[in-house]
Amino acid sequence: MGIETGVAWRELRAHFEHVAELQLSQMFADDPQRAEVFSLEEQGLFLDYAKNRITRESIDLLIKLANEAELPAAISDMFAGKKINKTEGRAVLHTALRAPKSSRIELDGVDVVSQVHAVLDNMAEFSEAVRSGQWLGFTGKPVRNVINIGIGGSDLGPSMACEALRTYSQRNLNIQFVSNVDASDFAEAVQGLNADETLFIVCSKTFTTDETLTNARTARAWLLDQLVDGDAVAKHFVAVSTNTDEVQAFGIDPQNIFGFWDWVGGRYSLCSSVGLALMVSVGSTNFRAMLSGFHAMDEHFRTAPLEKNMPVLLALLGIWYNNFFAAETHAILPYDHYLKLFPAYFQQGDMESNGKYIDKSGAAVTVQTGPIVWGQAGTNGQHAFYQLLHQGTKLVPADFIGFAQSHNPIADHHDKLMANFFAQTQALAFGKSSQALADEGVDEALVPHKTFVGNRPTNTLMAEKLTPFVLGQLIALYEHKIFTQGVIWNVFSFDQWGVELGKSLAVEIFQQLESGDASKAKVDASTAQLMDRYLSTRKSR
Ligand code: G6Q
């Protein structure tokens, strides 16, 4: 039986009929306490959710829904290391990656926290060696370029966080990310670099991912082309993986393997050794400060009552729009240039976790699940897609994220940035009426075009500054939001079977392309035609 057959869902549906008619402008006018009631602070991270199309009753009913879905028990199960990722038979313990050294979390009778800290210590030692110039390449030169080769969960987290914390980075180190199997990605990354000053981090949980292994082999060939001697590989390649056998088969020194565990999902792995490139960039102290931010949010999520629980509130608001207002998408709009990859990071985090139509019982769901997540840093988006947010026919709930202090306090830039940040949520919520336009004497024919109906919901997240700690808080906030929604929609948020079919078809098609003859390919007429066209026009290698 789906969640929609429960009492809370039914009550929410009836309540929606009433709330759908309400205007934010009226709700603010009617309730002077509204901003205060619908806001919450957690260790410096402030959430204002007053500009949502909700009443106090909406929140009560949504909390009732969370309780009906037995969210508190689900949270305990995850933190306790129960094997909640049932389709893969695994625990989901990314929270253990940021647990303090003094804590103990057992999985199958073994404490995982001590394992986590042992790897963190190894990472710190390695990072400091690279940063200080003690790690020498094959010709005795220190490392100047670090290239992470990985894809998906082994790329998006460290690349997003390196960008987010760029001001904390050691600027004489050039950190790059190569993910795409398109050789242009690799070719551009190594353009002009000297191999004897370049270190590759091959980052792959399974060490079987075709894109990553293809890039890693190309990197090895590129290195040996310059350095010739096969022994150079040990000085210029390290690996992050759970698959030590395959890493060694590749030729990487077992001393240079940073392990992690199958209870860490790829898209939840930034705090594991998958964050190695980030630690090299910002140093272990900043990395650990980020882990503290993650842990602070983990503890808040684990212990705060649901009605004062930031990830839970964001999740429930998302469900309110997704399932009752029929919103199809959710925008993440950070007003901080360093967070420009944050929307893409949570595009994977959210869509790979909750983009599922089969529920935990194996039946098709009967309610909408994960939204399409997208976004871009402000103010750039304002000059691109905000037109649709303000006057389009679709409802796009959005999160605005901003900071009181800039890392680059130059002239009046930051006040201008933040003026836009505040203006946008205000415009979205309250719009501009045709009456106001008429009063201003706007040409009658233009009034409809210039009218903003408003009533478009947003959340606003603010903190003092984008520090490593705050970044950790923010990431954990969204992780737990996704978890909460998955519990309510009753889907398995920690598997990703939907990426498998394309991968296996590509293997077959690749063989046909290699043979140069597509006639035996078991593909449809359209694909056959496209393959033929490709084969007849591609250059032979
Ligand atoms: C994330 C996914 C996926 C994964 C990549 C890379 O949750 O599992 O994005 O991270 O496919 O996998 P490897 O790390 O095993 O190369």
Description:
The chain is α/β, with parallel strands linked by helices and 541 residues long. Helix content is 47%, strand content 10%. It contains 22 helices and 13 strands. It has a six-stranded mixed beta sheet with strand order 1-2-13-12-10-11, with helices on both faces. Helix 12 (276-282) packs across helix 13 and helix 13 runs parallel beside helix 20. 44% of the residues are buried. The model has no long low-confidence stretch (mean pLDDT 97). Bound molecules: glucose-6-phosphate. Residues 151-154, 204-206, 209, 212, 265-267, 352, 496 line the site of glucose-6-phosphate. Glucose-6-phosphate is lined by residues 151-154, 204-206, 209, 212, 265-267, 352, 496.
Overall number of strands: 13
- Arrangement of strands in the largest sheet: 1-2-13-12-10-11
Tally the helices: what do you get?
A: 22
Q: Which stretches of 5+ consecutive residues score pLDDT under 50?
A: none
Determine the mean pLDDT. Answer: 97
Helix content: 40-55%
* Net shape: globular
% residues in beta strands = 5-15%
Tell me the Rg in angstroms. Answer: 25 Å
Describe the largest sheet.
Answer: 6 strands, mixed
